[in-house]
Fold each of these.
Amino acid sequence: MITIRELSSHDELYDFVHFPFLLFGDDHPQWAPPIISDELDNLNPQKNPVFNHVEVRYFMAYRHEQPVGRIAGIINGLEVRELDIPKIRFGYFDYIDDPDVSKALLNQVRQMGKEHELEFLEGPLGLSNLDKAGMLVEGFEEPNTMVTWYGMPHYPSHLEQLGYEKEKEWVEYEIQIPEDGPSDKIERFAELIRERYNLHMVRFSNTKEILGYADEMFDLINKTYSNLSTYIPIKPDQIAYYKDRYLKFLHPDFINCVADENGNLVAFAITMPSFSEALRKANGKLFPFGWYHLLKARYFPRKAAFYLIGIKPEFQNKGVPSIIFKEMNEVFNKNGITTVESNPELADNEAIRSLWKKYENRLHKRRRTYRDSL
């Protein structure tokens, strides 16, 4: 018999965050676990300002008092009210290979959505658009990055058996970086674009310098994606939170910013050292040795993960990314990095996907969200 319990206390939320450690354990070496304290902070209304406009309820499934699944029901008020999207999200969705478990968990979210008179549910999605999103449907043999969820093959099959339909799809690429530097074609084109628009690179030597540009970067993110009908602008309190949460993981060399003649930012790209291997070694804990593995990955990276790109609307489709990729190629060469993973990008975003055609690449992961009416 399956029992569903709603969780709320700190100890119960620890169990919620810790469940994937029981589910994946040592049997899934591809899984890069999160830092437990970081996950708990992200789900803490006292620390994460997203809760100013988000309601979340957490559920765990048990069989014979043993946890067998988890799910979060998420109502993003900005999404519902400002964008007029009558949706409840489900996220943090992990479960054993038993359709009765996944169905029982989803039913809790369905009921929550009906109570708020919403019309459909979609997931897996995080609390906001900057959180993890999408269920892995291809690439189970590949390690997940710090900003993505891992999953098992039975995850999507359960949803499809229940009649859920594909809503959005993202793809991820593994990109090989030329060891002899950017090609002559990219070098010439980047220089042409730089001279045509009188642009220059902004370089950083420490995290304090990055912080000085952080607000401008987030403003550029809002401008870059404002034309997407489902994009929720990032609020100032969230910007402060994300700066605090992720700045410690950034390597100054891996932040590529392009500015105009007046010093105003027109484009940027954030690439992180890959923390997947370090996270596996840390196994959810910063102490006693987790910090060592993360710091080693930050300063002596063997692989990188392409996280985010922003381009001022008036500079889009003008070849500006070529300046960024030229710089990135040189930085990676200096650090001995030959492989980079892309962040999940919408499968129908041809503009982004076309960027990787200039490099040897491999589409190695695919993820989706699923939806159903209430």
Amino acid sequence: MTQVALVFLHSPLVGPVTWRSVAAHLAGAGFDVVAPDLTIAVTGARSHHQAVAETVAASLTCLDADASVVLVGHSGAGPLLPRIARTVSHQVSALLYVDSLLPYPGESWIANAPQPLVDHLRSLVSNGELPPWHEWFPPEGLAEVLPDPQLRAEFIQELPRLPFTYFTEPTSLDDWQGRAGYLLLSEGYQQDAQAARQAGMPVIEQLDHHLAMLTTPATVSGSLELLIRTTIPTSSGTR
């Protein structure tokens, strides 16, 4: 059985609490887990994407040199997975996209986003930065998906102020020819899930909401375990 470590990558728009409970569940199931904080990497002045990849690579020093890793990217982390896979020194067994955008090699987020959203974000920029993600939309939206006030406050506390250059920076031309899978959590990513199917990826649907890993971590963990077994049929978490 192939033994893998899971590397949980939060969207650059949010913080690492996104994956905390799911990582704990899967650690309890026998997987080695790593969940780096990417917020400092994405708020710096240099190449944001490469800074993220190098931060992930540095976080894997806790693993054995011969460990095989599965990169698990939520939302905006998805398009960065191929570059991260090239940058880390460990063998990468698979990329798992979770309610995520798929890679758009050589293009920027802005080039792939709906124009009304792009226009809205441009209107929010101040001194080259966007406000934290929860301020982009009416507050009742976040309260609906994260009704627990303590959890919602912890989530908000981690939200970075991203430089607008993050959204205009083209992603790398790196392509991924290895195994990949997709976990769909919300209706908003149906198109990406369909594109994943057309690309031959196994797709698992657990329709809930975009931040379901925060509110139903046990269910999301189970779906991820199934996706791992489907994507890497000989995988095992027990080391």
